[in-house]
Design brief:
The chain contains three helices and eleven strands. With 188 residues, it is of the alpha+beta class. It has a single domain, classed as Alpha-Beta Complex (Peptide Deformylase). It has a five-stranded antiparallel sheet. The chain is globular and about 45 Å long.
Length: 188
Amino acid sequence: MGQKGDKILAERRILPFGDPILRKISKPVTGIDSKLLNLLGDLVDTLYATDGRAGLAAPQIGSLKRIVVMDCGKGLIELINPEMIEMQGEQIGPEACLSLPDYTGFVKRAQYVKIKAINRRGQSYFLEGEDFLARCIQHEMDHLEGVLFIDRIQGNALVHDQTRQKVNVRDVPGFMATGIGNPLSLKK
């Protein structure tokens, strides 16, 4: 925990790929209280303290709550109990994850999404996103279902960010430690 100006930062440890919590389904938030607001603050502090970030879901810091924070380049977005309302189109693009640093892979996602969520004041709202924002929303909402981007990788190939070598997703350290060959096949 650090300090920046008058604000105490509560940066939390991001769970690494292979941690079983990342494969669990998160529970809905039932009320907004100080504990939940502290968790939101910890998520925001952790997100902004991490290089190469666009979003962070509560399970990534060990809390099985349906909460996501994102900053895809246009400011902070907080999502509590996000629900997918609409998906359209298709895009394939690169994705990475803070729980699996150093690897990037291509994932097929919807081009456009519309979701419903709750803000920190308990008010419902709708959010629409296209392109990169749509990709971020889908990536982070997957975390709430115990799904990781490597479950959706095109061609089972990742690229190691430093060496630029292609790696089969099954060869990534920790993949077999999850005890789940193909998590999506188990969730149908």
